[in-house]
Amino acid sequence: MRSVPEHQEHVNALFASPRTVTLPANEALGRVLAEDITATVALPGFDNSAMDGYAVQAADIAAATDDEPVILPVVEDIPAGRTDHLTLSAGTAHRIMTGAPLPAGADAVIQVEKTDGGVDEVRIYSAVSKGAAIRSAGSDIAPGRIALTAGRVLHAPQLGLLAALGLAHVQVFAPLRVLVLSTGSELVPAGTPLDHGQIYESNGAMLTAAAAEAGAVAEQVHFVPDSVDEFRARLDDYVDREQGADLIITSGGVSAGAYEVVKDALTGHGVEFTKVAMQPGMPQGCGHYTSAAGTAVPIITLPGNPVSAQVSFEVFVRPPLRAAMGLPRRRRTAHARVTESFTSPPGKRQFRRGELEIVGGEPTVAPIGPPGSHHLAFMASANALLDIAADVERVEAGSIIEALLLED
Ligand SMILES: Nc1nc2c(c(=O)[nH]1)N[C@H]1C(S)=C(S)[C@@H](COP(=O)(O)OP(=O)(O)OC[C@H]3O[C@@H](n4cnc5c(N)ncnc54)[C@H](O)[C@@H]3O)O[C@H]1N2
Ligand code: MOO
């Protein structure tokens, strides 16, 4: 049997370095910048008002008080969006709105609440210091400065900044297209009545979501029955399409039974099947599948038991899939105190599902459900995987173990 790190190496080798692609900025959410972004404009682009109020010369209202307001004529009205160049003369005020360009000659803005709000003339009840309520050009970022560096994941604030800089396109690492294919004659799609012996297909939905959550563009292929010819024909249809796949993930049909369609169809076609010393997720396979027309695509064949499929995705697929898109490969981990004792199979690395909580400031983790790989409901209530080394056969309550955090 391979160890987990040995099989990880085989899977990692299937992935190429990240490709770059230029995308419209509004399609780049979650992608990773492949280039430094230099500001070509200043932010703010011009001196402007931080308040609704009146642009003035601070010296003109230095003596203003509640009892003895300073009265100034209002000679301009400047809403945001006014594009002409204005100049304020000493002894006058311009009514100005937040974000509107400051007239030349003004050196402060007095907010409207400290005035009577006059339109023709304004009574000002308070002094301000020079520069008050002015947002000066370039005070956020000056032209020529690096606004975002390559490697940055683009979340909402970064996309906002790109938009503020007027950038419509951005060079990022390309998302990978992942095809998720489930096999098994017992599988029935949701919405169909079940006969005895049939189950609803769930790995497809789960792995498609997992790949999408990892940042890929994932497509689920309706499962195919346990027929080798049909399986390969279906696979070739997808692999040879114009917009083919960068990676295929299958689930099921890889263990030791009489009808292991994935194994039977792909053995001798560039895919190596193996056992990995882990629980769940022992039967694994990976390689490059080549279609009848000669298209070669990396393929990872995960075991069919739902918990095995999901844990295998976490352990083998997610890290290199993310790295191939320039995304951070590792999830966060925590060292947590175990709340109850449990056993672990000898000679196998175990990934037990658990619930991590912070109790009294300390991370604690409780195993969730039994170790069996069909316990999808238990897995769905877990937020962590407990990583137990192959040489550990019993984990005692109170000991500290490493937990992989499955949620932010
Ligand atoms: N004689 C042996 N039997 C088994 C071994 C073994 O070494 N020797 N390994 C066991 C282990 S461990 C696992 S894990 C499973 C893996 O089996 P397969 O990958 O061949 O998966 P299937 O047999 O097709 O299905 C297993 C189980 O999962 C259900 N399943 C499959 N696909 C889906 C799906 N898309 N949605 C929901 N559920 C799915 C399927 O109905 C089976 O119950 O093999 C053990 N057996
Ligand atoms: O090792 Mo299998 O993947 O748990 O049931």
TrEMBL record:
It catalyses: adenylyl-molybdopterin + molybdate = Mo-molybdopterin + AMP + H(+). Residues 328-349 are annotated as: Disordered. GO terms for biological process: Mo-molybdopterin cofactor biosynthetic process. GO terms for cellular component: cytosol. Its cofactor is Mg(2+). Its EC number is 2.10.1.1. Keywords: Magnesium, Metal-binding, Molybdenum, Molybdenum cofactor biosynthesis, Transferase. SUPFAM superfamilies: MoeA C-terminal domain-like, MoeA N-terminal region -like, Molybdenum cofactor biosynthesis proteins. One of its GO terms (molecular function) is molybdopterin molybdotransferase activity. Pfam families: MoCF_biosynth, MoeA_C, MoeA_N. The keyword Thylakoid does not apply. Belongs to the MoeA family. Catalyzes the insertion of molybdate into adenylated molybdopterin with the concomitant release of AMP. This is Molybdopterin molybdenumtransferase. It comes from Williamsia limnetica.
